[in-house]
Amino acid sequence: MEGFFVGVDVGTQSVKALVLEGSSGRVVGRGSRGVRMVEGLPRGHMEQRPQDWFQAAVEAVREAVGRSGVEPGEVRGLGVSGQQHGLVALGEGGRVVRPAKLWNDTSTWEECRMLHEALGGPEGLIALVGNPALPGYTAPKVLWLKRHEPTNYERTRTILLPHDYLNYRLTGVAAMEYGDASGTLLMDVRSREWCPEVVEAIDPDLWDRLPQLGPSHRPVGPLLPRVAKLMGLPSGVLVSAGGGDNMMGAIGTGNTRPGRVTASLGTSGTIYAYSPTPVVDPRGEVAAFCDSTNAWLPLVCTMNVTVATEAVRRLLGLSLEAFEEAVAAAPAGSGGLLMLPYLTGERTPNLPHGCGALYGVTQTNLTPSNLARASVEGATLGLNYGLNRLRALGVRPREIRLTGGASRNRAWAQICADVFQAPVVGFTEQEGAALGAAIQAMWCTALHVDGEKVSIQDLADSVVKLDEASRLEPGGDAEQYRLLQQHHDSLREKLFPRVNH
Question: Is 436 a domain residue?
């Protein structure tokens, strides 16, 4: 496809941009700007200023286009990926009412309890929208705003998510697409419509504050002339619907066909799969999300991946390279050491008050190498708990695609293959969310500007490049890890009885 396409990813630490050449699928330019948290907040409150995202996006796009050497007039489309669940409250004239409460804000436990109480418990909410109430989701944040800051709530005219806010600043249009909207707890993931029971449990007047819902292939609109000038782009650039970072990461890892599963190994961990039909977990452990291709994205999130391994690496005083060597030097099973990695509690399974545990310590096995490997195995077994739940709901992974910084650790990747009992492979391009946003922009441009009937699956297959040199098959330790998973799950249940949502 002719032309160039910009992908923007709004994260909690930075805003990244890249320029994708449509005809070759090559990334030809990159840019990035850091963003800060609001400081001095009470424990559990995590906020950022939406205006900072916009300014960082402008600068990151200018840098990416400048470094690409592309003539700005050759840029045809732009897509935005954003951190999920954040509450952006806009008042009159589209002005930000207060800083955005983010996905990792845990101040809304009481509001979750109230929603469960009003709507038949976790089971009632799962029946209504497909998911139980969790503090990360947007609906409890809306109720929090109404209860704790009634003046700000009354000033609010429109409620958006982070990527929607950036779309609004780019185009002047307030809208929400199905993928990101499915993480609000306000939309039934099966019908893709706002849920009257949840909306009215929060406030009947909330209807007037909700934006229009729309499909993932429908663009938001053209770039506003004044914003285009700031970014150094032509005003006719089409802005696609965009989506949440997990939804865009799915596109950017080619996770757009059944049988492909993406595992993201970052501070936290996510593991998700493409599905042509809704996947709703009656236990509420798998998030029943829509994706940003008009299909579905059953997803599991764990809070402790490199949280655990980095704590051990720092304790041992090892460099990243030395840590990887230590992991590789220890035997599978870490000589009998087993780590439950819940250093920050856990989301899946739901253990908000859980903590880390090291089991099986003896005089002979407490070595730096065993401890390093136990942290990696514990984090991976935690993710595999989620993968097994996906399997129980009908997901059949033929291949696990690894992304995130830790995925480049070869020893860890082999542990993933053995624990997941499936082939694993990495990518030549690591910025999956920004790449997915650019691919979606290509899709929207092809459909709505060029009149081409092209599928996003075909576009993703043509752009996403697997690093075949990184491919690993399950080895001789797979059976040992199957048994270790049972031990891991049993120990967790004994130490931390399951908490209902």
Answer: no
Task: Give φ, ψ of 483 to 5 degrees.
Answer: -70, -35
Q: Are residues 170 and 185 in the same domain?
A: yes
Reported confidence tier of residue 501, pLDDT bands at 50, 70, 90: very low
Domain finish residue from 224, 246, 268: 246
Query: What six digits make up the tokens of 175?
Result: 């809208």
Give the long-range contacts of residues 94-99, CB within 8 A, separation 24 or more.
94/158, 94/168, 94/172, 94/174, 96/49, 96/50, 96/51, 97/152, 97/155, 97/156, 98/145, 98/149, 98/152, 99/38, 99/47, 99/48, 99/49, 99/50
| Structural domain count, the chain | 2
Residue pointed to by tokens 């009634």: 150
Same domain? 241 vs 253: no
Q: Which residues, in sequence order, are CB contacts of 420 under 8 Å at separation 6+?
A: 263, 380, 384, 387, 397, 400, 474
Q: Which residues contact 189 (CB under 8 A, 6 or more apart)?
A: 129, 130, 131, 182, 278, 280, 288, 289, 290, 296
Q: At what angle do helices 245-252 and 432-448 cross, to 10 degrees?
A: 80
Alpha helix (H) residue ranges in 232-319: 245-252, 306-316
Reference 179, options 278, 271, 296; nearest CA is: 296
- Within-domain flag for 472: no
Handedness of CA 55, 60, 65, 66 (dihedral sign): positive
Range of the domain at 355: 249-427+477-501
Residues 319 and 228 in one domain: no
Q: What is the mean pLDDT of residues 122-137?
A: 96
Q: Count the Cβ atoms, other than its own, within 10 Å of residue 254.
A: 26
Last residue of a domain, one of 185, 214, 246: 246
Q: Is residue 149 in some structural domain?
A: yes
Say how far apart CA 321 and CA 138 lie, in whole Å.
39
Query: Mind listing the pLDDT tens digit for each residue in 220-277?
Result: 999 999 999 999 999 889 999 999 999 999 999 999 999 999 999 988 899 999 999 9
| Residue 346 domain flag | yes
Radius of gyration for the chain, computed over Cα atoms and rounded to the nearest angstrom: 22
**Exactly one of 180, 188, 245, 291 is catalytic; which is it?**
245
In the block, residue with structure tokens 């291709």: 293
Q: How far is CA 253 from CA 16, 336, 426, in A?
A: 17, 35, 9
Q: Are 442 and 219 within 8 A, CB to CB? A: no
Instruction: Assess whether 409 and 297 both reside in one domain.
Output: yes
Average pLDDT, the chain: 95
9 is catalytic: no
Considering the domain architecture, whether residues 130 and 238 belong to the same structural domain is answered as yes
CATH number of domain containing 357? 3.30.420.40
